[in-house]
Amino acid sequence: MLSKLEEVITEELKKINSRRTNFNSEKNIKDNDNASNLFGIALSGGGIRSAIINLGVLKIFNSVGILRKADYLSMVSGGSYIGGYIQSKLFENRQKDNPFNEIFGDDDISHFKNYGNYLSPGECIKKLLNKLRLLGAFVFSLAMNIVWVLSFFLLIYYLMYFPLASLSKYMFSINMVSSILWITTAIVFIWHFFFHGLRHYRLWSSNALNIIEGVLLIFIVFYLLSLDAGLFSIGSLSKHFNIQLSINLPQLLGYNEYICDSIITLFLFVATGFFSNPNILSIHRFYRDRLATAFLIKSGGIKKAVKIHELIPQCICEYKAPYPLINTCLNLSGSDDKFKGKKASDYFLLSPLYCGSTRTGYVESDSRHYNKITLATAIAASGAAVNPNMGRYTNSILAFVMSILNLKLGYWIFNPHKSNKCANIVWWPIYLISELLGKTDTTKRMVNISDGGHIENLGIYELLRRRVKLIIAIDAVADPEYEFSDLKNLVVRAKNELGINIKFRKNSGPELKIKPKPSNGYSESHFVIADIEELPCEEGEGVTKTGLLVYVKSSMKEPKTRWKNCNKPKRDSSYYYKTFHPTFPHESTMDQFFDEAQWTAYYNLGRFMAGDLLNIDVRNEKQLHRREKQLTNYAIDNWYNYFRQK
Fold it and tell me: Within a 13 Å sphere around the CA of 119, how many CA atoms are in the beta-carbon half?
């Protein structure tokens, strides 16, 4: 049964209220209460870089009790890596009085450091084997993808052959066609190359000449598709593979062996179509398994993979984790909604209670087709940055090439709108062809989801939809020029789609406070505060302030003390790392292979960013412990007032 967004939020609030009663001792939230004290943390995209920075920030947050107070943990892409760790770890220790004491331990931090290069971790022989595994996964996924691609193009080849061969047989000889075609091509080519640039001999305009060349190109393609052309001729499949069909076939056009080939190709195309599941045959599964090994740490050995609907325990007294909102992008590049354009997309949510979007509706996460989705699959889909269809970044030509090369991290999931009517058996070429042509939509049984950053990369949007009063957002995306493009995208979407205005305080915008000063190359602050305002329904009415956005961005402040001396430089310092890597902390997201020094620099930066936000010198253990005691018992209202006065 489909649910609307309002119903989804209502059910979420019931679970949040139960958690508050049993664990957080906060006052309950009433449904649609705009004056509520909901608190959410948003973890941005950015791949492994984002995961490490967020790890450093959240470790400090956890030590002073902020993480425990969060009602929502909204995550996208790289933020989902560390968000998935928090959810799995808290779920594993749910029966303990305070499972938050079990996260971010020294063993887990060491594990994360060892898996900075999570796609091929290890040293020496182990690293070599992991690189071979990566290479093997890609090559064999490409080979398996070629099966359906080859059968598809062979089928088109044979379907086009008959009319072309028939035309050449009954109208004129193929030799005549060949002569005319190549002579015409040579004339056009020579004219364009040698004479078109001479003004006195320019018989055609460039536009007219290009049209002639385009039409000529079509004729060349059609000619080459004919087997009698000689080029690209593959011969008869039945001859190559010694296949003989004991079928009395009509002597159609005198091409009996190619009718046999067409039947063989059609059979292969249909039969393999039931097994061409891109969720299995693409590198999505390899990516998912690597993330699970690196971030979903299991104490005491390998255990059963947790499903997302299991994150809400049956015994509600064991529910102690912030409610997770795992953000992905629903690709609608083939949508028939002309107003939204050809690069349309929607926010597709994966969460313990419901999965879906406003476009498709929402279904319960423990329902048929959804009850087998694991946390590892969810975070892999949220971080599927490499995909033929990429929301607002979709490009038809790029989608075609990536589909052929099987560069697909995205996930095909049952359409919530049709999930009750869907059978388990899927004939995949319908969806593979739509992906190949960049024409995914919501009219079929399956829909395509990819990286949440393809629509909104900060993870803040879903929190704004829920009218969360206090939002702390960590922006760890690559932004070397400090253009704040993801923040600008959010501000525009929030105003146009939700009627919410994000208003930074006067003379305290991110361009002024966070963007490095030209004079010294450092930022004045790691964070800025914005008011969240609800726009009025009628002109003349005033705006209503509904909350605060604490926007924290990866940046470097000017050091106040010497971070390096002549005898013993602090090699774990972020400043030391930046000496040799000037683009730090905004190295390219394409780099997903962090070494130990790189990992340590980003991790420490995250800790310093959190310390700056909370007025804590994280290098001073005594001060850190003293502030922990002061802040641990802060309620959400205390934190709201703390940031409002910043």
Answer: 18
